[in-house]
Hints:
The chain is 39% helix and 21% strand. The chain has 538 residues and is an alpha/beta fold.
Amino acid sequence: MLSVSNLSVQFGKRVLFDEVNTTFQSGNCYGVIGANGAGKSTFLKILAGQLEPTSGHVFLEPGRRLSVFEQNHNLYDEYPVLETVLRGNKPLFEIKTKIDELYADYSDENAEKIGELQAQFEEMDGWNAESSAASMLSNLDIHESLHYTQMKDLDGKQKVRVLLAQALFGAPDVLIMDEPTNDLDYETIMWLENFIANYDKCVIVVSHDRHFLDAVCTHVSDIDFGKINHYSGNYTFWYESSQLAARQRSQQNKKAEEKKKELQEFIARFSANVAKSKQATSRKKMIEKLNIEDIKPSSRRYPAIIFDRNREAGDQILNIEKLKAVQDGVTIFDNINLNLKKGDKVVVYSKDSRAVTAFYQIISGHEQASAGTYDWGITTTQSYLPLDNSAFFNSDISLVDWLRQWATTEEEREEVYLRGFLGKMIFSGEEALKKCSVLSGGEKVRCMLSKMMMVRANVLLLDEPTNHLDLESITAFNNSLKNFKGTVLFSTHDHAFAETVANRVVELTPKGIIDRYATFDEYMQDPALKELRAKMYQ
Length: 538
Ligand SMILES: Nc1ncnc2c1ncn2[C@@H]1O[C@H](COP(=O)(O)OP(=O)(O)O)[C@@H](O)[C@H]1O
Ligand SMILES: [Mg+2]
């Protein structure tokens, strides 16, 4: 379908891709992964013809169409909604435009041309284009009354949905998406997962969203050391099998046959789980066809995130009564009553993301509530990862000195000790001596996690902890929170994180709290709760 030959890309001295040869097949969905800056976005731009490689070629089978999910949400601001979607199928839109022009300037000569174009138009199913674009929009909850509105008059959420419809419109043979779930809400992501999982063409997608990758991918395309390798299976399969293979490599006294058997059993277990899962998708069959040759030991370094506690908390963790927050004259939550139990792992959710951040800022003592009270149990110690951590990093000290600020004993002040914690977050050697003011977003979060590991609190407050992190860090962080013995309040856009960590869901609304012991999916998909939730925001 789409292939790449001898592709090399170099920016200055930096070689991103070195003689890459690879093919993308129809029917498959490739999840492209790789470290920050590995070249994922660059690669997609080259596939889409938006960027020229330094050398080499990209071949799309003749007669096939490729489409890209637009990341610039304002690009179509001057166009009406329905037309924006129609523009997604460029060849069709161009023919339609020509026909319209010729009609406007009607003559006998033009009539013949119109006839020819209309035949092409018909072949491309052009007469149904508007109605299929309209029904796509409606499926995405863009009501008919909005179809002739200018894009610039939609809100951010609506714009992404229209652009999504644009990318999918006319069923492109190759669909390219760079981190598509980033600005989408839960419902839209679920819709997209379902759509892509049943889409029988070729999809190439970069994502950090493991739930999405697992739901849609038949292959993982790993960018590492300037090359791209495809592996059959979804992200979880790639992660777990490559970890298993890496462990096997270090077990020298184990026989080759035993290792092979272990891998085969792993594949059988994994396939059985996929087969059992509720999802009925056409991609699922592909994931059931896994083979042992595809498993390679991982060369990735995963951070070692381990949260210990200095002491165990008593039974009183946190009691909140009638808590209220007002921002810019608007009540963002009110009448919040909550009693935390020891060991609860609570995902805190609100349709208004300001509410969640205000909640953490209040219960961590950084901001005042507009009304109500909160009481921490005296045996609790809290460690807070705020959404905005910039205040921690506006000095020029080294990472070691930065971390030393939270040392409480002589031992903790020692450089070796501090470097140990930084090393766990993959700041090794010289990296630990970097100035903290030059760090990237992801590096700052990794520093904050080093601090949290060192502080050993028994309650963790985490506001969007996976922001800026790469897949390795997210995966390691997720695993560590599953195993943490203390209490956690967290909010996240990462579906897999929410689903695998939380035993309780709390939603903050202007009309009070909704509080359920449930998994995140159970909570979000419960029809009665959906109704209740809609009412609480009115
Ligand atoms: N036009 C450019 N000129 C120079 N360097 C670039 C350009 N575009 C990207 N880069 C660099 O190439 C690397 C890969 O970028 P990108 O493809 O965006 O990575 P990823 O999407 O994997 O995070 C980064 O180090 C980036 O700074
Ligand atoms: Mg990118």
